[in-house]
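Shipment paperwork, digital attachment
Item: protein structure file
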Amino acid sequence: MASWLNNAIFYEIYPQSFNDSNGDGIGDFQGIIDKLQYVRDLGCNAIWINPCFDSSFYDAGYDVRDYYITAERYGSNADLQRLFERAHELGMHVLLDLVPGHSAVDNPWFLESGKDERNAWTDRYIWRPMTQSPNLNSPYESIRGFLGGIAERPDAAAVNCFSTQACLNYGFGTVTEDWQFAADSPEAVQGRLLIQDIMDFWLGLGADGFRVDMAGSLVKEDPDHYWTKLLWQQVRAHLDETYPEAVLVSEWGDPEEALHAGFDMDFLLHFGPSHYLDLFRENPYFSAGSSETTSSAETAETEHDCERSECDGTGSSGCDSNGNSVVDGDNPNCNNDNVGNASGDIKAFVDTYTAMLASTAGTPGYICIPSGNHDMIRMRDTLTTDEMKLAFAFLLTMPGCPFIYYGDEIGMRYMHGLKSKKGGYERTGSRTPMQWSCATNAGFSAARPDDLYLPIDADSERPNVASQTGRSDSLLETVRALNTLRLAHPALQADGGIEFLYAEDHAYPLVYARSSKVGEAECDATDGERSGTAHETSCETCSKINREAGGERIIVAINPSNTDASCTLPSDYVKLLSGGSAQEISQEPTAKPTQEPAEKTVLLSIGNPARFDGTQLHVPARSATILPC
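Attachment content:
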């Protein structure tokens, strides 16, 4: 596995909507190049660019017409190569989005495959004889349907997702019809070799790897994904020989499957067994605030902030056009009625996540948690900006590689009611242009508003980068500080261990410990210099932590609720927080501490810091605390 992944923090870029450099209303490669320094300064050292190959754009680039040429709207292959070069100059890595399961129906390969005369492409797609049945519905779970009447050959083509996406042929794990090729047939093997050739082409131009769309769907009717996993293991073996530092991250949604298939990373997603939705979206654990229970001091401070506007660079991002506070409970879709009890079941997530860690322990890969992506409703639709700070405290202190969806770092809203754009449907509202400033079109483009790829959030109080930059209380600076902390502390990075100390059913707080291995460097000198403006971080403190105990240990305590919460920690952590040595830990907690607990330096706090009284950890309402032990 690539060595650079251990401290990687990814930023997902939807190219149409990120930054338009030429004023045509659509984002492009030069626009990304112009903003790479922003992404790096945010603390993200890797990016994933959504599909940018030549496309019919029926599905926003997920219908590829030519895998070896970039889409003209973004720029040329040479422009993309310059993007790779500039990213590498900044110490960053770039993943491209590869869609291997299907191509556009106007891809020249598919047009050749549809000819009546046999040729090199005849069997590269899945075709079923029309003479067998005129019914174009699919009886197969792994095939969405069949598309008939579009080819010279008397056959119908299998499709994934939309009817414009014809399935490339990687064979069938279970062959039941004479038109189906076995997964180990020469025809199916050619599909895998084609994937390898496409990868080699872009890696040779400077790409650092790929996010693979629908990675678990290639071989059809494949029980337990046996043949699909074998296919990806063979691709991984090829890359290990040719580009060993190349990275593969899968859209599989089941790390136990994906990591054993040879992927370096797999996402927890809105589908699959992970309970990911319980965190931020459906009865979200991190949404439990209520403006009615906000303390008078906090209310006064919030109201003072709201006297200033978002666009003057000094005001709060949580004010409506009348200057009313909407920092907490500002979204009608937020579930903020809970005071003492959590709306989301964090225990179900933790139990599933822990089982995933155990089942993938023999692999070198990572389980990755994203803030969102181009297929999800934005996190801001169910969390307030203050709640998002706590959600990011979780995301950026968990193992694996975190992924930040563009705009989530400033709390961009999901835009309800937009007409579907290029196959976006309900996803369209999560793909609107990045909001850089209060300039025309939020600084995204110099085009006329009617020419923009998608409309800008029309709210005059929409969040933007310029207004949050340098404001210590902003979401942007909180994310920056969390990234800085993660990069400075080995225990918080991808390889660090995790132990959940308190994660109970529908309860607060959430407390876990991260730990590094003996001998790992305590600081990244380059990143350590970029101390967050929102919160102080201390590499020096970190370097002294718990060397005798075998490495760095850090506790993360988060309480999104409106009431203070406390929990009793395991006896070994009671000893550590009380100033004891890990080697002296007893199995039973003492009835009463023999001395006052040593004061611990807080590495970062959002809200009031947690306090340890010798037996219990007290976590204030609406807070996150990261502290050494």
